[in-house]
Amino acid sequence: MSLKFINAKRIEGLDRNVWIEFTKLAADPSVVNLGQGLPDISPPSYVKEELSKVALINSLNQYTRGFGHPPLVKALSCLYEKFYQKEINPNKEILVTVGAYGSLFNAIQGLIDEGDEVIITIPFYDCYEPMVRMAGATPVFIPLRSKPVDGKKWSSSDWTLDPQELESKFNSKTKAIILNTPHNPIGKVYTKEELQVIADLCIKYDTLCISDEVYEWLVYTGNKHLKIATFPGMWERTVTIGSAGKTFSVTGWKLGWTIGPNHLIKHLQTVQQNTVYTCATPLQEALAQALWIDIKRMDDPECYFNSLPKELEVKRDRMVRLLESVGLKPIVPDGGYFIIADVSLLDADLSDMKNDEPYDYKFVKWMTKNKKLSAIPVSAFCNSESKPQFEKFVRFCFIKKDSTLDAAEEIIKAWSKPKS
Ligand SMILES: Cc1ncc(COP(=O)(O)O)c(C=O)c1O
């Protein structure tokens, strides 16, 4: 084989991907898919209607402004000004990208250099580590650790960062920390005090914060999503990432956005103008119109930012009851639409599975094949050293129709029945 066929060094060792592997397995129509974060509920009707309207307008089928379609950045600035309590310049402080993936890519390529260190909490959304490595930087990991919860429900809020351990990860090479709140896969919603610890360290060590807040609207009773960029001294060093896919349950639209000060956003714009250049115009226009509908009724229970978490909280509670009914102890999420549980208690016979994989990879493959139920192994959200700590956990997605959850319930309940 020609040496010229060899991969670029920057992608060495990054060829395996959990979504590619497990989405393929779950594609069998007989499988009930609680794997990838893919809503099978209908997106709001007005979101779909706006998209069907724009295709009829000739000019909206052509390229638009590269850094974000003007009506969309205007709608986003209007939406977020309420939360940042400051004006947000639609052209200089917002960048619209290809999903939150695109935002993460632009931020990491635009701001992180060879030799830099980037702090990542374990478990983490799986693309953080390869993106940091592709930029030539070194990821520095810190685990979320759980306190003991004997006898009581296990909550995502039991998982915390140790402030001293966190400080030990910062040094003069630290360029950024990647924060994810609400958290995927644990569902943790960082509190004001926890965010203050991170903000203080970012300021003390003159570090940037890349804040992935794609599940920002999806927080459950008793919790509040807070933006670290609004903490004193943090706006100037934070880029905050959002996603249309998560906001309106339209993951296939693949539109995301980054908000931050122009002195950071301009570097992300440089990456964008030399890579994807611009995002799909009809989707951006439809998203802008849909956002206006909800911006005008933010305090109304009908507003999707209020109604979706209410709808999901019922599904979350149903999943908790279901998993508990078969003897599992799920970690009850305070936000997001995933729930994780230690499945080793189900005592599945994995002896036929290939032995060179973490327990959760074998378990999910076995469950998909034998029980026709799919999920995602949590060790996919870990670096290689920390996989053993999480390999007994799998992640179930609950942004699903009741009929899908009924089917999952039937499978899980039948499984746990003693064989007659
Ligand atoms: C934490 C987190 N960040 C980023 C993304 C990517 O979002 P998008 O589909 O908008 O690219 C996801 C998708 O699941 C996610 O869970």
TrEMBL record:
EC id: 2.6.1.63, 2.6.1.7, 4.4.1.13
Keywords associated with the record: Aminotransferase, Lyase, Pyridoxal phosphate, Transferase
Family matches, as InterPro entries: Aminotransferase_I/II_large, Kynurenine-oxoglutarate_AT, PyrdxlP-dep_Trfase, PyrdxlP-dep_Trfase_major, PyrdxlP-dep_Trfase_small
A GO term for molecular function: kynurenine-glyoxylate transaminase activity
Biological or metabolic pathway of the protein: Amino-acid degradation; L-kynurenine degradation; kynurenate from L-kynurenine: step 1/2
Reactions that this protein is recorded to catalyse: 3-hydroxy-L-kynurenine + glyoxylate = xanthurenate + glycine + H2O; an S-substituted L-cysteine + H2O = a thiol + pyruvate + NH4(+); L-kynurenine + 2-oxoglutarate = kynurenate + L-glutamate + H2O; L-kynurenine + glyoxylate = kynurenate + glycine + H2O
Cofactor section: pyridoxal 5'-phosphate
GO cellular component: mitochondrion
Domain of life according to the entry: Eukaryota
SUPFAM superfamilies assigned: PLP-dependent transferases
Positions in coiled-coil regions: none
GO biological process, one term: L-kynurenine catabolic process
Gene3D superfamilies for the chain: Aspartate Aminotransferase, domain 1, Type I PLP-dependent aspartate aminotransferase-like (Major domain)
Residue ranges annotated for the Aminotransferase class I/classII large domain, each copy included: 30-406
Family: Belongs to the class-I pyridoxal-phosphate-dependent aminotransferase family.
UniProt-listed PANTHER family: FI04487P, KYNURENINE--OXOGLUTARATE TRANSAMINASE 3
Annotated function: Catalyzes the irreversible transamination of the L-tryptophan metabolite L-kynurenine to form kynurenic acid (KA), an intermediate in the tryptophan catabolic pathway which is also a broad spectrum antagonist of the three ionotropic excitatory amino acid receptors among others. May catalyze the beta-elimination of S-conjugates and Se-conjugates of L-(seleno)cysteine, resulting in the cleavage of the C-S or C-Se bond.
Protein name, entry field: Kynurenine--oxoglutarate transaminase 3
